[in-house]
Structures are given as C-alpha cells and as structure tokens.
Amino acid sequence: MQRNYVEETAVITEELIAEYKSYLYKEEKSRNTVSKYIRDIRAFSAFMDGGLVRKENILAWKEKLQATHSPASINSMLAAVNGFFDWLQLPELKVKPLKIQRETFFKAGEGTDTDRIFYGWWKTAEREHRHRLALLLQTICSTGIRVSELKYITAEAVKTGRAAVDCKGKTRIVLLPSELVRVLGRYCSSQGIGKGMIFCTKNGKPLDRSNIWKEMKYLCERAKVEPDKVFPHNLRHLFAKVYYEMEKDLSKLADLLGHANVATTRIYTMESGVKHVRQLERMGLVFAGKQKPHNDDYVVTNIT
Asked: How far apart are CA 216 and CA 232, in angstroms?
C-alpha cells in the first residue's frame, strides 16, 4: 500500500500494523517472518505509547534495547521497523544497525558434539522402534534440508533420487544419497506409500517443527542428552560442517543449503574455540621458556 504517513497519521496504529501485515503476506513472506516483523513493530509501538514518531524516538528505543538484547537481536528488530518505515514511504526515519564483528569460532560448549548427539538420537530411535523418526533424522542430516522442506521428500523424489525444493519463491534441486534412497524406498514399500509426502501427520499435513521437536525431546530423555542443547536445525548444521570440512567450498555449500547470501553460510562453518586455540598453539610463537631462536630462523617484516 502506498501512503504518506506524515499527512495521514502521526502515530503507529493497529490499523496501520494490520495493513502492513496484509502487505507482507502479499509479498509472499513466510508466516514465521510476518509474525516476527509484526511482533517487533508492536514492541516499538509500545515504546512510543501513542506518541509522535520522530527519528530521536527510534534512536532512544535502539539505545534502550542495548541494555536487554543481544546486538544480533537488536539489528533484527531494527530491520523489521525499518521495513515498516519503507512501506510508509518514510526512509528518513530509518536507523543504522549496530556494527557487529563476525565471530570466527563457537563459544565453549557450542557446536562441538552434534555428530555424537545425532548418532545417539538415531540409535535410540531405532532401539525404540521409531523408524520414521530415525529416517527423518537421517534425511535432514544427509541432505541439509530445512525442517520446513521435509514436505518435498516424496515417494516420487525417492524414485528419481531428486527433490525439487521450493523455499521463499526459489526452487533448488536436492540430490538424495543412494543409501538414503534405498532406506526410504524400503520404508515406503512397508508403509504402502506410493505417492506424496513421506513425512506427514495422520491427516496428511506436513510435519512442522513442533511435531518433530516433541519426538526429539523424547529421544533426548531416552538418550540422556540435555534437551535445551539440541534442536532439529542442529542436523542441518552437522551436514554443513561435514561437507565444508571435506570440500572447503563455501559457495557450493551455500547453493546446497539454499542460501542467497554466503555470509549466512559462514555461520554453519565456524570451528570450536578449542580447535582454534590448538591451531594457535601449533604456530609456536610464544617464546617464553624456549631457547632464543637463531637470527635467520624468523624474519619479521612490516605487516599492514
């Protein structure tokens, strides 16, 4: 919708928010994305408490958020509000995001045990005769697809070894490993699945994140894994981690994961802090307690 915000209103109203929500859906934004944007806009609206919107108000909100939110969360909220002002044709109200230096490794305890946890999940699922869940875990892990993309793993895809995945208006082909094709094909035969989705509810609807997380939480308890450390998305991380360690090709990995921006893919390839420290130690550039090197052992040059 095109409108002049200054002429028509001086405050953010629920009517405006509802119109913007409708606009986002027309732009084919996902339901989760729309909910997130609207939630952030309402947070800013609550901060304004019916007052007139000025640039200094937005800067004050940005400053207040820094006391309670992480920089990444703040930038995400600012992006939602900035998009709202773009729609209102008021780009002069937009504010700059915080500058964040990209981390190159995980914090201690993060991202280091996914492969061990995955194996524990899978073994527990098989032992508990939850064969569909075991296959679901392997499917995400061996292809790198999102949970929301499981609906594209169909009986037809298993027959061709290729799944056409549509995400946010962009279609990519996901190749299924031959061993995955074999076990999925056998599962389809045993369950009488001749066409359509393999992983769905009893009513034939796609499984969503809450469905899968409920089952995975059960596995965590049975496998003695802390539930707050694991999520379905961890399996996608494991795929990215193993692929990058083998190929070192970030652009190709971005294509496989369906990322439009390689910067997003970098998050999946971070190493653990422990591994990073070991790499630094192997450099051997701390000389305390060592014999003084010969003059020709090290050449120091200007570094700019």
From this structure: 8
